[in-house]
Amino acid sequence: MTHISKVLVGVALPALIILSLVPVCSAGVIGTLDLANCASGGVTVNATSIDWYLPTGGGNGCIQAGGATDVTYSGGGPFTAGTGTILDLTFGEGAVPNFLSFAGNPDLHFELLAIGPGVLNTNCAALTDGQSCSVPGSPFVLTLVGTTTTVTLAASGIATDTSTAVSDWSGTFTTQITTLTPAQIEATIQADGSVSSTYSGAFDIRITSVPEPASFLLIGGGLIALACLKRRRTRQ
């Protein structure tokens, strides 16, 4: 057996022994969430908060799963389409447990960890068609489209189910404000006002599984083996 082979065996064998002791976990939550505001729903934003409102107004928002939703998870998956709840937000409040929840999927949990950020350009008055800006300190991106504004908000977090697996999710909320330009929205927010939209916004979310401990061990073992090979070749 060559020296390189001995090195590989010396690295791989302990890794295999450790892997045999690591319990195999399920893949957890994975897939795509296609969400929209419920009929007559909407959103109101100001400098410090986001208020998703129900069709009757007030409270947390109502969301509806669309036809492109394709989510599987442990203990009840695949995803049961239907209405759900999206929690109101206060900027800077930190993690928000159960940011998204669905009555038909009580074992499925979406925690919000981050929103935004906005873009660096804060001069909304100087935009030309297709350009974007953000109100200073705001996580929203405002894009001028003709005489209207497309508003986007990036969000990310983790998703869990009844297994021990944890998945990452990230998505973008998109809505349109047809009555105000980005410059007008910026002026309203900076004057401590609020802006509302009843346009049916869409939340497009991608959910990806996080590598299990076994996967990290395999990756680590492979990197160690490559390092040993490189060192051996350097000596030769």
Query: Could you estimate the helical fraction of the residues in percent?
Result: 10-25%
Rough outline = elongated
Largest sheet: 8 strands, antiparallel, barrel
The mean pLDDT is 78
Strand content: 35-45%
Give the domain tally: 1
Secondary-structure element order, as H and E? HEEEEEEEEEEEEEHEEH
Supply the helix-strand structural class: alpha+beta
User: What is the radius of gyration computed over CA atoms, rounded to a whole number of angstroms?
Assistant: 24 Å
Enumerate the strands of the largest sheet in spatial order, edge to edge or round the barrel: 1-4-6-8-9-12-13-15
What is the chains' assembly state? single chain
Number of helices: 3
Can you characterise this structure?
The protein is of the alpha+beta class and 236 residues long. The chain has one domain. The protein contains three helices and 15 strands. The strands form two sheets. An eight-stranded antiparallel beta barrel has the order 1-4-6-8-9-12-13-15. A four-stranded antiparallel β-sheet has the order 7-3-2-14. Helix 1 packs antiparallel against helix 3. The longest helix is centred in the last third of the chain and has 23 residues, at 213-235. Residues 2-26 and 212-230 have low confidence and may be disordered.
